[in-house]
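Re: export button greyed out
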Amino acid sequence: MLRTIRNWMPQIALLPSLILVTVTVYGFIAFTILLSFTGSRMFPRFSQWVGFEQYARVWDHPRWEVAMFNFAVFGALYILLTLAIGVALAIFLDQKIRAEGVLRTIYLYPMALSFIVTGVAWQWIMSPDLGLERAMRIWGWESFRFDWIKDNDLAIYCVVIAGVWQASGFVMALFLAGLRGINDEIMSAARIDGAGPFQVYRWVVVPALRPALMTAIVVQGHLAIKSYDLVVALTRGGPGYNTELPSTFMYTFTFARGEMAMGAASAVMMLIMVSVLIVPYLYSELRHAD
Amino acid sequence: MNMKVSTALGGLLALGLAAPVAAQDSVEVMHWWTSGGEGAAVSVLKDDLEAQGISWQDMAIAGGAGEAAMTALRARVTAGDPPTSAQMLGMTVREWAQEGFLGNLDEVAAEGNWDDVVPPAVQAFGKYDGSWVAAPVNIHRPHWVWANAELFAANDLTMPETWDEFFAAADTLEAAGVIPIAVGGQPWQEATIWEAVVLSIDPELYRSAIIEADPEALASDGIVESFDIMRRIRGYADDNFAGRDWNLTTAMVINGEAGMQIMGDWAKGEVVAAGLTPGEEILCAVVPGTQGSFLFNTDFFAMFDVGEEDRAAQLAMAEAAMSPEFQETFNLAKGSIPARTDVSGENFDACAQQSMADLAEATEADQLFGSLAHGHGQPPAVQAAFLDVVTQHFNSDLSSEDAAQALVEAVAAAQ
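Workaround output, generated via the alternate export path:
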């Protein structure tokens, strides 16, 4: 009897959190998917079914068009730049330099801030009337211009800058851990076999960093899709709605406009985007685990 | 020992009894009047009710022009626990009434003669299906030009009455080295300017294009012209207008950095807070070409259907909110004018007095319209479609013709 209970103890201990996750995560995902097929406006209403009409309305909407374009720009640049800067920082820090601990903390520190703080601070820095542009002009560089945040086409790059500043340190930490995990003896062995520095990196270091790379892409990718607070704090979607992202679209339509079903449809679109990113990763990870 | 137990029991009983009694005489009010002046205005009502023995549970939710409050309200109502009352704009009152959540105020309305003292256009939002469901507390007018008197005097300018005069004044101000027009680049602020421009072109265009959302009117030359004027206005703004808050924009006019701003009468709050008098240091005039008509937006206390035991307190609150004394004190603090037209204007500033006179005149001539930018023109989804196009045009190089066409499509898609 006691033994049976003891055997089942882990399952029993996990049960509450399992139920909680099932209901609050998967239950609400199902709820949202159902909602996206209804004609709900201010409140969820499951009496009127409209099929894929809400999806058609989302894809026809000019704001969604802007949101998807911005997501492509932001997502691609955010992931590529954080990777490039993160890897570079990690390689430099790995050269056994002095005061590495201090530098590492400095680079990692932005990650400790919330996106709201990052957004507000960068909003001040990039605002032409009180930030960088003004400072440069006061210091005598009268023709200095940096007004991207007020520019319709360039404002989205301001979001990229703030996001990259925040997250590069995190990618650096991932890669630094990866680099430190490489056994020195393998590197020595490669050198003894006559490999140059480039070849060592190409054939030894890079393959060893593959897990770190996968993790970085998946973590940064889903952050890019979910990114909401950064835009809200930095530009509030403006100028006009030129920095709209899928997440701000979803919030606006669900809560501010009384278009709950349309909001749900856009949320499902975001879920699909996350899945496209995560599922292959999970698949490859699980296969490796077997 | 026995004594102690019975005392304790008595105490428990007393507590148990006291709770429902207290609940009977309390109101819970959700609103987003959180700035200093607004908070003071609300506490007038709170004190009034507490004098009657009704306690006031404040549920102030700041942010986003009520967006945050409306989100919280929806959660409360979905959970089956609505507050006694909530601050709402006209179209929102209508939506909640359609959903069947609002109560009935006809008894106090009949007693207080609301039907005779509230302008019919405001009644249209406060009443649903012939019954009063919400108490209107103020009337804001969103189409004003605010100007720095010192700059105007120094450049021999007077308040413009036509768009030609307006742009001539802007040229003069530009030559004098100040920003001619202060613009806050947020969708609702841009729409506040745009709706005034449409009204100035023709009040009937405002009626057909905005209130009735008639596709033909939306594609008409008048709307194309309105976008032309918007483009000209943007030409007189500084480069950094995008995203600027309205109060910072008003501050530019107050401190002489900019000459003029088009904004609603809540801008007076900033003027008064700076220690100035509206009508003296900061001049006011309605937007050129909108003389004789009146756009309005009104804050309502919408009353939820709360059941019998809370109804007495709710009706007392509605009555207090509609009393002439409260309407006067509240609106003096808020910058608007009373929703009751029988309140004397003698304590109000010159701009508010003009508003009151214009309101009477516009009501008479059927030229009183709900403001689109402030929730009295179209339901939220359609309103947002208008705002999308207006802000997209203002923040891009979209041509006026294309903007009018985009408007037709966006409005049709949102309906």
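The two ends of chain A are 33 Å apart (CA to CA). The button fix ships in the next patch.
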